[in-house]
Design goal:
Number of strands of chain A: 0
Helix content of chain B: over 70%
Largest sheet of chain B: 2 strands, antiparallel
Radius of gyration of chain B: 29 Å
Shape of chain B: extended
Strand content of chain A: under 5%
Number of strands of chain B: 2
Oligomer: heterodimer
Largest sheet of chain A: none
Structural class of chain B: mainly alpha
CATH architecture of the largest domain in chain A: Orthogonal Bundle
CATH topology of the largest domain in chain A: Rna Polymerase Sigma Factor, Chain: A
Strand content of chain B: under 5%
Structural class of chain A: mainly alpha
Number of helices of chain B: 10
Strand order of the largest sheet of chain B: 1-2
Radius of gyration of chain A: 19 Å
């Protein structure tokens, strides 16, 4: 029978590095997916996975098993991704926020194609880039991963009400960016 | 009738239950408008990592874990060394202070006014910035040389990178120090590049002496993916220009 995560953690604490290898093999792919959704960059997601697992290894002594290992590791991954976004923010802010989306709509004759096409994806990427790290993470975890609000709050270290407000701010930014495509009033 | 707030409507889209929606057509219409937008936002496609992704992750990580253990042992020694050094310094300082207190006459304020202390050479912000830029420029130079050497390697079994490893190890310690200093001094571009460089230096420093062809390719792929050689060249050129310009300004 396959050992549980908790059993593996106990073995790592006892000095068994092979047990940590099993944890890495079990979780690195899903950590990569979460990191990619937040960072939108494969090389960065790869770095986040490395950093996450290293931090997890260092912090295994403090892991008390109250949350599942998956949740705990994802919490570290989100924090690593946010750290990375912070260091990238200076560069990204200049590039992403200046796209003129109204032009993109005006030049395409078929609104349906625009909505479903690459311009829409660009608008979403652009909206994600204007969000703060917390807004982006809360939105990604709720909208794409379907994670419960309480869990998102615990990952971000904020209360559930603050999490709701963070998601609302993220959605407002998305609606503003997507307005040229939907024509809806904000 | 009190309608739902926009925040409530967004939350109801994500599953929160509001009884008001059962009776209010206006709020339901607003929910439908928001849903029409949010329904279209699909998760961006995550590029599926290679089939052997997990073993790659472990391979890279195990180098770092080895380094981590070595560092932990070194830190333990350093901690004891530091304690011993503090005791010795405190003892010597105590002796010197005692001797000075017995020998030095009290200096009057007038005498102090006649002999003002010279400002140390690196005491102005400009001087400190210039020193940082000069040392960082050399650091970038050496890092670039290592990365170029590694990217020019022909991937083959048992490639010996011992010299590059040692150089990367030496650079890694200073990289962290320079990054923190650059952040403190508001040198954002320099700090960001140092931040990019760090994981790669760590990977090289903690690599085994002899690499497999795959391991060589992995390092080369990471250098290329981050465009580090080009970034190092550009930032180093800017840093040198800024350092030269700072050097020509009079001290404030």
């Amino acid at each position: 029978m396959e050992p549980t995560d908790l059993e593996l953690v106990e073995r790592v604490r006892g000095g068994d590095d092979d047990a940590f290898r099993l944890l890495v093999e079990r979780h690195s792919r899903s950590l990569y997916r979460t990191a990619f959704r937040i960072t939108s960059n494969a090389a960065d997601a790869d770095d986040v996975v490395q950093e996450t697992l290293l931090r997890a290894y260092r912090a295994l002594g403090t892991y008390d098993g109250r949350a599942s290992f998956t949740t705990w590791a994802h919490r570290i991954a989100v924090n690593c991704s946010l750290d990375l976004l912070d260091s990238r923010k200076r560069r990204d802010a200049k590039i992403e926020a200046t796209d003129d989306l109204s032009d993109a709509v005006a030049h395409d004759a078929s609104p349906e194609r625009v909505v479903l096409g690459t311009q829409m994806q660009r608008a979403i990427a652009s909206a994600l880039a204007t969000m703060s790290g917390n807004e982006r993470t809360a939105f990604v975890l709720r909208h794409f991963e379907g994670m419960p609000l309480e869990e998102i709050g615990s990952i971000l270290g904020i209360k559930t009400n603050a999490t709701k407000n963070t998601i609302f701010r993220a959605v407002t930014k998305l609606r503003e960016r997507l307005q040229p495509f939907t024509g809806s009033a904000i | 009738m009190n309608h739902l707030t926009q925040e409530d409507i967004v939350l109801s889209y994500y599953g929160e239950r509001f009884a008001h929606l059962d009776t209010c057509g206006e709020c339901r219409a607003e929910l439908a408008r928001i849903a029409a937008i949010l329904d279209r936002i699909e998760a961006p496609e995550v590029p599926e990592p290679a089939a052997d992704y997990e073993s790659h992750v472990w391979q890279r990580l195990s180098w770092r874990l080895r380094g981590e253990k070595k560092r932990a042992r070194r830190m333990e020694w350093m901690r004891w060394g530091a304690v011993a050094a503090v005791i010795v310094i405190a003892f010597i300082a105590g002796l010197l202070w005692n001797r000075r207190a017995q020998q030095t006459p009290v200096m009057t304020p007038i005498a102090r006014g006649l002999a003002p202390q010279a400002e140390p050479a690196a005491n102005t912000p400009q001087q400190r910035d210039r020193i940082l830029l000069v040392v960082v420029s050399d650091h970038f130079d050496e890092s670039e040389r290592i990365l170029v050497e590694l990217t020019n390697l022909k991937p083959q079994e048992g490639t010996d990178i011992t010299p590059e490893r040692h150089r990367a190890e030496a650079l890694l310690a200073s990289n962290r120090l320079y990054r923190r200093t650059a952040e403190d001094r508001g040198q954002e571009t320099v700090a960001t590049l140092l931040d990019d460089l760090e994981p790669l230096l760590m990977q090289i420093a903690h690599a085994p002496s002899r690499l497999s062809a795959d391991e060589v390719r992995d390092i080369q792929k990471r250098v290329e993916a981050k465009g580090l050689v080009l970034k190092l060249r550009v930032v180093r050129a800017n840093v040198r220009a800024t350092a030269a310009a700072t050097n020509q300004q009079p001290n404030v």
